[in-house]
Design goal:
Layout: E1 2-6, H1 15-25, E2 26-34, E3 46-54, E4 60-66, E5 80-83, H2 84-89, H3 101-111, E6 117-118, H4 119-122, E7 123-127, H5 134-137, E8 138-139, H6 141-147, E9 154-158, H7 171-179, E10 185-187, H8 197-202, H9 206-212, H10 215-218, E11 234-237, E12 239-240, E13 246-248, E14 254-255, E15 259-264, H11 270-277, H12 280-289, E16 291-294, E17 297-299, H13 302-307, E18 309-310, H14 318-334
Parallel strand pairs: 2-4, 9-14
Antiparallel strand pairs: 1-3, 2-3, 4-5, 6-18, 7-15, 8-10, 9-10, 11-13, 11-15, 12-17, 16-17
């Protein structure tokens, strides 16, 4: 049998049971990875899946890597072999195997070398809070003054990755947002907090009634208390064009679930982690541990972020540096981000 499948088959967790099932029931399982879009008008990248010899079993994939799809009456006759063990070692992903073996070997050796750490060993990475009604709970400074909302109930928030333009969110950064009257003030009411008359008035507006009817709000008691609001040590962009941004938080902001909240573990410092983050090897790791979203974007889920490899500064040979940059270029081309590494 043969299928046109989403390119997510090369990295998505939900593809793992399917591919395992096929290996257990077919003598041949071939995945054809195609870099250029098969359907030019769709944002979705597509690969091809071929299975033969029903009733048999295989412990390896045949992976064919193609620049573009050209019609043929039979599957490609050239491939690289990816064993079930290798597939498992790469977190059940076939996507890394579009890289040459030399780059994969360098990556694995560096990731397991002395001093190498996964981001999950350095920090906890999770999503920010979920309001259920962002426009209601996030106020502009001018609106907060007009509504007479007490300052003690307002906390400056990073709404999305567009606010992460520099290496740090500082007091000066926050002043700029407030001066531009950005809607960055989270209405943060703790449970059992006494409400002023002005706050009660705001919670009785038509906008409040609309907000209270949303799924998240109507399942909270009381509906206007936003849970899981905390001040992290830093932020990690959720979706990125070129590379994920790791930004420190000296201003003490909170964040929505549109960015990741980073809480460091002892004895690590944000400055030290950021130095490692800027290394090209970490950029390659982001490409391999994250996944393409479409439109050239790279998406990094919290569990993927935890696997990103940080390596200590080391002298690399010219060949090693070249391989790392080549790996970044290849992975970006496969997600249609053409910017040079």
């Amino acid at each position: 049998m043969a299928f046109v499948v989403p390119a997510e088959i090369g990295h998505a967790p939900y593809a793992v049971p399917l591919l395992s099932h096929l290996l257990d029931r077919f003598a041949t399982v071939q995945v054809i990875a195609v870099r250029e879009k098969i359907f030019a008008d769709l944002s979705e990248d597509c690969w091809l899946l071929y299975a033969d010899g029903r009733g048999g079993r295989s412990d390896e994939f045949r992976l064919t890597v193609l620049e573009r799809f050209d019609f043929a009456t039979y599957p490609p006759q050239t491939w690289v072999t990816v064993t079930r063990r290798e597939w498992t070692d790469w977190n059940h992903r076939l996507r890394p195997f579009v890289l040459p073996p030399s780059i994969r070997t360098l990556y694995r050796e560096s990731a397991s070398g002395a001093g190498a750490l996964r981001l999950g060993e350095v920090a906890s990475v999770g999503i920010g809070y979920v309001t259920g009604a962002n426009d209601f709970f996030h106020l502009r400074p001018s609106a907060a003054r007009l509504l007479r909302i007490p300052d003690r109930l307002l906390h400056v928030s990073v709404r999305n990755s567009s606010f992460l333009a520099t290496a740090s969110v500082t007091d000066g950064t926050v002043r700029g947002w407030l001066d531009r009257d950005e809607p960055v003030l989270l209405l943060r009411i703790e449970k059992d907090t006494p409400l002023t008359s002005a706050v009660r008035d705001y919670l009785s507006t038509p906008q409040a009634r609309e907000a209270s009817a949303t799924y998240k709000c109507r399942h909270r008691e009381p509906w206007y208390v936003v849970p899981d609001v905390f001040v992290p040590d830093g932020f990690l962009s959720y979706m990125s064009g070129v590379k994920p941004l790791l930004v420190s938080n000296p201003a003490g902001c909170v964040c929505t679930n549109s960015v990741h909240a980073v809480v460091l573990k002892k004895p690590f410092s944000m400055r030290g982690v950021q130095r490692l983050w800027d290394d090209p090897f970490t950029t390659l790791s982001c490409e391999l541990e994250g996944h393409p979203l479409g439109g050239g974007l790279l998406k990094v889920e919290p569990r993927e972020a935890g696997r990103i490899v940080l390596v200590p500064p080391a002298k690399r040979t010219a060949r090693q540096r070249k391989l790392i940059l080549e790996g970044i270029e290849i992975m970006r081309r496969w997600r249609h981000c053409e910017q040079s590494a």
